[in-house]
Specification:
By secondary structure, the protein is of the alpha+beta class. 19% of the residues lie in helices and 36% in strands. Strands 3-4-5-10-7-6 form a six-stranded antiparallel barrel. The relative contact order is 0.12.
Length: 366
């Protein structure tokens, strides 16, 4: 049986470095069409003894204030000691264009010393925006993906994070966020990754499809587009605009380091010029011990303790590897693996190559 490879696969095999067209909607964001962050504070109740402890004063104060709103008056000197309540921060993102009555997901995170929010219920929380206005109300049962178990001896085990959870569709939108998307005669497109050639190609493609003068590239990030003022015509125009195929400019290759996890990601177009790499580990070991000097009998001497230090230096087995010019990703990985380099060593080697001018890539540390 014979198999035929698709056309795009043949092109990728013959021309691995060529750039293919991309959908415009995947390259840009529409200015003004974005989500807005909301935050609030409330209590999670119904916990099985895993709530905040007594030393978390603001939780007890919140319980007292809540009871006072329902007509329950506690004496001034009595501090309610509850173990089934936890103070939490409630956060959510209000998507663009959402109207009153629609539901959004909320995230609930403990801000005290609660052990777990599993099985708890969030009491009514007001979610506010950066302007201090209330945009949504949240309440419901908290879904927690983690767990914690503890024995009488003090030993415990924790899986994932039991002090944070999610309430699917747990908030109802009460206020809409105004936008100038319909009031302006122009729509602005912002590139995800600024690049002059990509911005120019987008403006050229829009002018070819919708007529000359429709789009103007104002910078490497922003493209101004003339759009119809009628709401229905504008939506139809934007839907057609998002499906236009645009050839993006060639982006500079990147090498991304994650110093927290030791992860190194090397882009496909990274090229190393001719260089010689030598890498060896240096280990310094310091061992401390005490020598006790005991005086002889009837000598009226005193026992003396003298500290002693033993220092050892191991320079490791350094190796040198010669990298030829125009080396590709696979050759870089093979050469570094030949050195027996760890992720931390690879970070150091690539940084040194970049400083030496032998690495054609942008280094990004996250």
């Amino acid at each position: 049986m014979r198999y035929r490879l698709p056309c795009w696969l043949w092109l990728s095999l013959l021309f691995p470095s060529c750039v293919f067209a991309a959908r415009l909607g995947d390259l840009v964001d529409v200015e003004g069409i974005r989500g807005n962050q909301l935050i609030g504070y409330s209590l999670v109740v119904g916990l099985d003894g895993t709530g905040d402890k007594n030393q978390v004063r603001f939780t007890n104060q919140s319980v007292t204030n809540m009871l006072r709103q329902f007509g329950v008056q506690l004496p001034a000197k009595i501090d309610p000691k509850v173990k089934n309540v936890a103070a939490v921060a409630v956060s959510a993102v209000l998507p663009p264009g959402y109207s009153r009555g629609q539901s959004i997901d909320v995230t609930v995170s403990s801000i005290g010393d609660a052990k777990s929010l599993r099985g708890g219920t969030l009491l009514l929380a007001q979610l506010r925006g950066a302007d201090g206005e209330i945009y949504a109300l949240a309440q419901g049962s908290v879904v927690v993906g983690g767990m914690q178990a503890q024995g009488n001896s003090g030993s415990s085990i924790t899986i994932n994070t039991p002090t944070a959870g999610l309430i699917p569709n747990g908030a109802t939108v009460e206020r809409e966020i105004a936008t100038d998307f319909q009031s302006n005669d122009q729509v602005y497109l912002n590139l995800h990754r600024p690049e002059f050639k990509t911005a120019n190609n987008i403006a050229t493609a829009l002018n070819q499809n919708f007529g000359y003068g429709t789009a103007t590239a104002e910078s490497a990030t922003r493209i101004a587009v003339k759009a119809p003022l009628s709401p229905g015509s504008r939506v139809a125009f934007m839907s057609a605009l998002e499906d236009i195929e645009v050839t993006p400019g060639k982006m500079s290759p990147r090498v991304v380091f994650n110093s927290r996890t030791g992860t190194v990601v090397i882009g496909e177009n990274v090229v190393v010029h001719a260089a010689a790499v030598s890498h060896g580990s240096l280990t310094v070991t310091i061992r401390e011990s005490n020598a006790v000097s005991q005086p002889g009998p009837l000598s009226n001497g005193r026992t003396a303790v003298t500290p002693q230090s033993e220092l050892r230096v191991n320079q490791g087995n350094g190796h040198s590897v010669v990298i030829p010019t125009a080396t590709t990703l696979r050759s870089i990985v093979n050469a570094l693996n030949g050195l027996g380099a760890t992720p931390d060593d690879i970070m150091s080697i690539l940084q040194a190559l970049h400083e030496a001018g032998a690495l054609d890539a942008e280094l990004v540390v996250i």
